[in-house]
Amino acid sequence: MLPIAAGMVLGALVMLVGLAQAGRLAPQDPQAIVALAQQVQTVHRKVDLLLQRNDVEAAIESLEDMRTLPWPNRERGGDLGMELRHDIYGRLARLRLDNPDVDSIDDAALLVLIDEGLGDDPAAVDPNPFTARLIALRGETFEAQGRDDDALTAYEQALDINRILLERELGDPSP
Amino acid sequence: MTGRPTPTAVYLETFGMLALAVGALALTACRKSAPSASPSAGAAAQYESEPTDDFDSESRDPDGGEALSELESRLHGFEDELARAGVGGLGYSEEAAGRPDKVTDGGPAQCTRICELATAICGLETSICELASEHVGEARYDKACARVRSDCELAQEACDACGGS
Hints:
Order of helices and strands of chain B: HHHHH
Mean pLDDT of chain A: 89
Structural class of chain A: mainly alpha
Distance between the termini of chain B: 18 Å
Shape of chain A: globular
Oligomer: heterodimer
CATH topology of chain A: Serine Threonine Protein Phosphatase 5, Tetratricopeptide repeat
Number of strands of chain B: 0
Helix content of chain A: over 70%
Strand content of chain A: under 5%
Largest sheet of chain A: none
Largest sheet of chain B: none
CATH class of chain A: Mainly Alpha
Distance between the termini of chain A: 47 Å
């Protein structure tokens, strides 16, 4: 009985990942995305606990460990895979920006981190709050480097995504 | 950032709940029809070889009807949650169908999303307009600040209109 139930639940999960992707680029391997989403959720919970204990260094370390994952590209992981990646990298970048004295890295390294998270073509990803946040954090990093024009470009890109999301929520038919 | 509900959690929790409900529903339906219906020969054979006494007694009644309707009801509830989370429906309930990210349910979840977007947009207003204040007279910065200020007002109005804060 247990294997059948487990199989049904797994099948339902995989099916739901497919449903979640309606209107977006679907992952080639939905089971891998389910596993990745579970891992991301686990790390978020761990980071929440570490931050409750004011252990920012361990929280950053946990998120840094996620950088070593073989993150799927958009073709393989679909838009959901990219959103998960932007979610994790966004939280890591936010923590680093807010805690510059903890396990410090310079702005150039932080920019490398953010660009690594964004991947090759973040503009292709279906608009979502995680990509918007990570691009805005890129703007903050540019600003810290004194690159105001680049910062403004990044802020405007993040604003464009958020505007689309708001229009969708308000029922505006525009894209 | 700390302790915020992540969309990952929303996805997984709603997926998990719905998946469990789907699985339980399937099991209940399978049990009810196992002697005659076997969509998967291997699974059906294994199912039929299992003793029935160990089946979850809390989720069934003598004929299975009550448990089935209860599970269907829960499934509809989970599906509505998924719809509010921006995930397309299974088609069990009409109101749950629709395009992801285009949910206009008008409920508290949508209001929360609108207000979170307002927070993000107004945060960008602060960043952009502070930059503009350091680039006085530069048209690009001035235009960007005016634009994001307007967007922030619109988003905040939408948040206020739905009862958010």
